[in-house]
Amino acid sequence: MRGRYAEAVVTKKRVSSRDFINAYDREESSGQLANGTAKDAGNPHWRHSLVHVLAATVSSFLFGYHLGVVNETLESISFDLGFSGNTMAEGGAFVGSIFSGWIADGVGRRRAFQLCALPMIIGASMSATTKDLWGMLLGRLFVGTGMGIGPPVAALYVTEVSPDYVRGTYGSLTQISTCLGLLGSLFIGLPAKETMGWWRVCFWVSAIPAAMLVLFMQFCAESPHWLLKRGRSVEAEAQFEKLLGGSHVKSAIVELSKSDRGDEVDKVKLSELLYGRYFKVVFIGSALFALQQLSGINAVFYFSSAVFKSAGVPSDSANICVGICNLLGSIVAMLLMDKLGRKVLLTGSFFGMAVSMSLQAIAATSFVSSSASLYLSVGGMLLFVLTFSLGAGPVPSLLLSEIFPSRIRAKAMAICMAVHWTKGYQVECSYAFASILPCSGLELDFGVGQTMDCVSNLFCALKQKGKCENSSSVT
């Protein structure tokens, strides 16, 4: 019996995905699925796919950890090595994000996660053991490469393995995991100011979840979408059964056939994405990530210690409050994502950030007392992080992985993430030159930016509530 099954797998697994899906279409049209279990079983149980999604969110935890690991430890690293920022990590992330789509399409989502973890292990080890600045810079470059690969692959994987009715909730788990990573780096970095060389421990610790990601992905399901595009039809069926349950396999194949008609793995030309048939949707996606970064959120996380210190607030407690606000907002977003829809959360998020930046701009003027200025600046910062995590944080990557056609999804996400890192670096540079602006200039600048973001989303954001993957229209 086993040999017969193996023979069937060998015979069928390279069947054209188009022919394979069309066979299911013929069954549906002839009524063979009309009374089948897939139609009567309702929604697949969320528990089947949850464990695979949770494993994927380890990459998001690593992203958040490395985003914040230099926050608490920056002073001691600077004293020991002369290190002063995250520029090398951002450069590596830009490079990693560019190639992430080609990696995910070439070796699959699972292997892409494992490849993402390797430079993080290597880079963390180099940073932890280096005795000079160049070793730290090279280590951060390696880590940044993994940071660039991880987020787009996580967005792809979560979208492709999640049932429709919980896709928004599961997509928010990546943001929650990022918040946990940020909080983890803050807590682990607390002894850095009192314990000499503690920053080395902080980098060593990050190698543990990276190794866990490699191990977990060895046992997780591969994306059935990717397998079907590669012509591995029987394997795709097996993965759908693992993710959704046996009674939902046929309906999942039929739904996939309706969404993208089983596109084959023909090469997507860069011209199609940059100025061809897919330019409009890629432009909207890139603009959404640009607006996200123009909010200044990465600069807030990178330099929150310095910002609160200048305001006279103890940096340790302030940074933990920032992390908790980020986590709470992400949890609320997870609960509301599939109820209110992406557009409502995104627009409300940008509006809230505009209000928070306005509060900080007022705090920096001479019209308020010193005590009021302190409360407004700190309260505005916490409100900014909270409202960001409600929509502008989790929505863009989830929304774009849903609206991009399967044929271009990975590569289009790569382009959008490259824009994300480019704009993030520009915003960080604006903080470096903040001293040449009037005291409230930077806050006012970002406040105007949030208002523009809010208006842009009112006109351009996609209404995604209750829609399945690939069923959106770009208007």
UniProtKB/TrEMBL annotation:
InterPro entries: GLUT, MFS_dom, MFS_sugar_transport-like, MFS_trans_sf, Sugar/inositol_transpt, Sugar_transporter_CS. It comes from the Eukaryota. Its main location: membrane. GO terms for cellular component: membrane. It is a multi-pass membrane protein. The keyword Transmembrane applies. It holds the Pfam family Sugar_tr. The keyword Transport applies. The chain crosses the membrane at residues 49-67, 87-104, 134-158, 170-192, 198-220, 281-305, 344-368, 374-400. It is found in: Membrane. One of its GO terms (molecular function) is hexose transmembrane transporter activity. Keywords: Membrane, Transmembrane, Transmembrane helix, Transport. Residues 52-475 form the Major facilitator superfamily (MFS) profile domain. Belongs to the major facilitator superfamily. Sugar transporter (TC 2.A.1.1) family. This is Major facilitator superfamily (MFS) profile domain-containing protein. It comes from Dovyalis caffra.
